[in-house]
Design brief:
Porin, globular, mainly beta, 12 strands
Length: 267
């Protein structure tokens, strides 16, 4: 009984540590704050977990595979910033895929040095095990720098976006398509705690009216990252993200969260 409990606890921990709720992007930790211009910059991270565990008394084993990769690249011109972000998560237990998610996000910030700047973005993503076959969105908005000092940066953003989704209802084995215009708002903070440690957080609130279903759909999501600098190239990252949807399109939990630890390289 104890071995079964430990095995179940291990599986649960692996799923929680490597799964990631959809639609949570901490763009702030990918932004560039240098005063110079006309250069490329980027970061990349990769975590690989591979385990086997004994099952029963016959020497049989189960295999556990986990892969998490993320990266971003940016170009900073004199007046604008161009960002491209991507992420992929994969977990396989007992010969079956338990988690597979990914996204690609592109964003342009115009008048990056001004207190009031403008943003446009586009995103594609999927989360097969939750039933999200595909999500595509485009949006635009304004970004206002409330505080910009050496020890803290606080920003607010608001705008509109258009979201197309294709979900699979796994209980009824049918597909549902949604096209919903939404308001998207966020608040972000970057807080250098010391030369080697930085905290960044961003929280979104998005709402739109689903006309065919005659209901409003609210989404609240957040991301908190702690970055520990090893040297100029390598950093350790602890990341907590969570999301809440008041009316999910398919039967899934309203609230999801993930906690991950990893390493990234900057260039």
């Amino acid at each position: 009984m104890f071995l079964l409990f430990r095995r179940s606890l291990f599986c649960l921990f692996l799923l929680i540590s490597l799964s990631a709720p959809a639609q949570i992007l901490n763009v702030e930790k990918s932004r560039v704050e240098r005063d110079s211009s006309h250069y490329f910059t980027g970061k990349a991270g990769l975590n690989l977990n591979l385990f086997n565990r004994a099952v029963g008394k016959e020497g049989k084993t189960d295999h556990y595979i986990g892969l998490t990769g993320s990266g971003n690249i940016g170009y900073v011109s004199e007046h604008n910033t161009y960002l491209l972000l991507a992420s992929y998560n994969y977990v396989r237990l007992k010969g079956e895929t338990q988690v597979e998610t990914g996204y690609v996000h592109g964003r342009v910030t115009f008048r990056r040095k001004e207190r009031l700047s403008y943003e446009t973005y586009a995103q594609g993503q999927y989360d097969y095990n939750r039933g999200l076959e595909f999500r595509a969105l485009v949006g635009a908005g304004i970004r206002y720098t409330v505080v910009q000092k050496a020890n803290i940066r606080f920003n607010l953003g608001t705008g509109v976006m258009y979201e197309h989704e294709r979900w699979r209802n796994q209980e009824e084995d049918r597909y549902i398509k949604k096209d919903i215009p939404k308001l998207s708002n966020y608040a972000s903070i970057r807080l250098p705690l010391n030369p080697y440690l930085e905290l960044s957080t961003i929280h979104y609130y998005q709402v739109g009216y689903d006309q065919p279903a005659e209901m409003a759909r609210h989404r609240f999501s957040g991301d908190i990252s702690i970055v520990t600098k090893i040297n100029n190239r390598f950093q350790l990252i602890t990341n907590f993200s969570h999301t809440y949807e008041n009316r999910p399109i398919v039967p899934i939990p309203n609230y999801l969260y993930s906690l991950t630890n990893g390493i990234q390289v900057s260039f």
